[in-house]
Specification:
78% of the residues lie in helices and 7% in strands. It has 208 residues and is mostly helical. One of its GO terms (cellular component) is Golgi membrane. Belongs to the TVP23 family.
Length: 208
C-alpha cells in the first residue's frame, strides 16, 4: 500500500513538473511577458467574478460594479498598451470641429519586436473572452436573467470595440490570427483539430 501511495505521489509530482515546464516554455517564447500577463489578467478576473462572484457576495450590485471596473481596466490596457507593444497596432478616435467623430487606425510593424507567440496571445486573448461572454449571454437570455444580461452586454460592447478596432488596423488580420493561434496550439500541445476550430471560429465571427 505504501508503494502505491509513493507511486501515486510520484506521478502527481511528474504531472506538476510537466505543467510547470510547459508553462515555462510558453513564457520563454514571449518577447513581452508582462504586457501579455495584463492582456489576459483583467479579462480572466472579470470572468471569474461573473462565474464565482455569488460565492463571496450575495449583492448583484457589488458583483456588477467589480466586473465593470475589471472590464474597463481591460479595455484601457488592451487599447492603449498591449496592442501597441505586442502587435504594433493602435486605434483611437478624434472629435472634429463639426462635432463628428473620426476613427484612426495605425499599424507600425516594421520594427516590431514580438514573436508569433506574442501575436497569438494577443489575438486569442482578444477574441476568446468575447466568445465566452457571448455564450454566457445566450444562457442568460434563455434563463430570462436580464440583470446579468446587462452586464454581459457591457462586456461584449467593450470587447467588440477593441476587436473591431484592431481588425480594421490590419488588412492581413486573418493571416496574423492564423499564425498566432497555430503557435499557441503547438506550444500548448493541443491537437490540430482544436487549432482549426479556433481559427475557423475567429474567421467566421469577424468576417476575416
Amino acid at each position: 500500500m505504501s508503494n502505491t501511495m509513493e507511486f501515486g505521489g510520484g506521478v502527481e509530482e511528474v504531472d506538476t513538473r510537466g505543467l510547470l515546464s510547459r508553462a515555462s516554455d510558453i513564457a520563454a517564447g514571449l518577447k513581452h511577458p508582462v504586457p501579455a500577463f495584463f492582456h489576459l489578467c483583467f479579462k480572466t478576473l472579470a470572468l471569474f467574478t461573473y462565474i464565482f462572484g455569488t460565492w463571496f457576495s450575495s449583492s448583484f450590485v457589488n458583483i456588477f460594479v467589480l466586473c465593470v471596473l475589471l472590464l474597463a481596466f481591460d479595455f484601457w490596457t488592451v487599447k492603449n498598451v498591449t496592442g501597441r507593444l505586442m502587435v504594433g497596432l493602435r486605434w483611437w478616435s478624434e472629435v472634429r470641429d463639426d462635432g463628428s467623430t473620426e476613427w484612426k487606425f495605425e499599424a507600425q510593424e516594421d520594427n516590431l519586436q514580438s514573436t508569433t507567440l506574442d501575436v497569438g496571445v494577443f489575438w486569442l486573448g482578444l477574441i476568446l473572452p468575447a466568445i465566452v461572454w457571448f455564450l454566457f449571454g445566450i444562457g442568460s437570455l434563455f434563463r430570462l436573467s436580464f440583470d446579468w444580461l446587462l452586464l454581459i452586454a457591457t462586456a461584449l460592447s467593450l470587447s467588440f470595440a477593441n476587436i473591431i478596432g484592431y481588425v480594421r488596423c490590419k488588412k492581413d488580420a486573418r493571416s496574423k490570427i492564423n499564425t498566432g493561434l497555430a503557435s499557441i496550439v503547438t506550444r500548448a500541445g493541443m491537437n490540430n483539430s482544436v487549432g482549426r476550430a479556433l481559427t475557423s471560429a475567429a474567421g467566421t465571427a469577424f468576417g476575416l
